[in-house]
């Protein structure tokens, strides 16, 4: 099983990249979706997050992500604590995803990891796909998001590896500054290039690699 890691800085087209892989029948584990589940009502992370960040509970008994974002915004120590609470649970979910696909003898899978390089997850994948776009387009896309401000965008970007460094560490770079079809065709080429390769990272000790 060949494990691809999919990443990219904010507003670089990573979500579109994940949807392209799914259209090509490649299973994708979405770390952001996993966090949503962990923080939802009955989620595995709810109790520990509410204990660390009082007052961020929503009416359904889960974590209000907007309240949580407001409580950690601009506080690196709070963000570090939040990542400390969430990342091991996300990694456990990734392990289960990989194990399930290994049993099914799936040839290629994708781990969609926003902070792939920042968490050294590149050591737990066979190849890295980085989504990228021109910086001016990145700003336009990001600032069009609900509740996004320039200050918030800059705070997010400060905690992310700069795009040029991500591209240097990539095995495959997907340009998203043109049409969606253009980036889809690039991803199609990635799949074709790895479909005959043998993955090396998956195994019982996967979750501990790179720690």
Would you give an account of this structure?
- The protein is of the alpha/beta class and 211 residues long.
- The protein has two domains: 1-24 and 109-189, P-loop containing nucleotide triphosphate hydrolases (Rossmann fold), CATH 3.40.50; 28-105, no CATH class.
- Helices cover 48% and strands 11% of the residues.
- It has nine helices and five strands.
- The protein has helices at 14-23, 31-39, 46-52, 65-72, 76-103, 135-143, 150-158, 163-168, 180-194; strands spanning 2-7, 28-30, 108-112, 127-132, 172-175.
- Strands 2-3-1-4-5 form a five-stranded parallel β-sheet, sandwiched between helices.
- The longest helix is centred in the middle third of the chain and has 28 residues, at 76-103.
- The two termini are 22 Å apart.
Name some characteristics of this structure.
five-stranded parallel β-sheet, 9 helices, 211 residues, alpha/beta, Rossmann fold
The CATH class of the largest domain turns out to be Alpha Beta
Structural Rg? 17 Å
Report on the biggest sheet: 5 strands, parallel
Strand proportion: 5-15%
Summarize this, please?
The chain has 211 residues and is α/β, with parallel strands linked by helices. The protein has nine helices and five strands. The protein folds into two domains: 1-24 and 109-189, P-loop containing nucleotide triphosphate hydrolases (Rossmann fold, 3-Layer(aba) Sandwich); 28-105, no CATH class.
